[in-house]
């Protein structure tokens, strides 16, 4: 799975991307050039809790992304965990992610 790592790429997704919210997660989606492979990033802000809590949230997001065949070609996607992510199963988060991606037109 190819990930977004640089600060410049994050800023590019934030400036050009579309934001979609849900109680289980939030996403930011930006279109890339045609033919580019898609990338994905997983974010758990410090306000959620300690490192163990945030790592669990990111594991749930990664598993949900795998279930939804992420990353999609031609798109950069940033997945943000919320307070509801930690207590949810990856299958439930994957279902929410699938709906959000459809809403974004992916």
From TrEMBL:
One MF term in the entry's GO annotations: ribonuclease P activity
Spans traversing the lipid bilayer: none
Keyword Metal-binding belongs to the record: no
Keywords: Endonuclease, Hydrolase, Nuclease, RNA-binding, tRNA processing
InterPro entries: Ribosomal_Su5_D2-typ_SF (IPR020568), Ribsml_uS5_D2-typ_fold_subgr (IPR014721), RNase_P (IPR000100)
Pfam families per record: Ribonuclease_P
EC code(s) of this entry: 3.1.26.5
Annotated NCBIfam families: rnpA
Protein name per its UniProtKB record: Ribonuclease P protein component
Gene expressing this chain: rnpA
């Amino acid at each position: 799975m190819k990930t977004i790592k640089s600060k410049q790429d994050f800023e590019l997704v934030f400036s050009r991307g579309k934001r979609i919210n849900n109680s289980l997660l939030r996403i930011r989606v930006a279109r890339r050039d045609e033919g580019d492979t898609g990338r994905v990033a997983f974010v758990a802000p410090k306000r959620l809790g300690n490192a163990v809590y945030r790592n669990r949230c990111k594991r749930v997001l990664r598993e949900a992304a795998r279930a939804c065949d992420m990353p999609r070609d031609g798109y950069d996607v940033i997945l943000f965990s919320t307070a509801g992510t930690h207590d949810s199963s990856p299958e439930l988060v994957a279902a929410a992610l699938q709906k959000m991606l459809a809403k974004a037109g992916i």
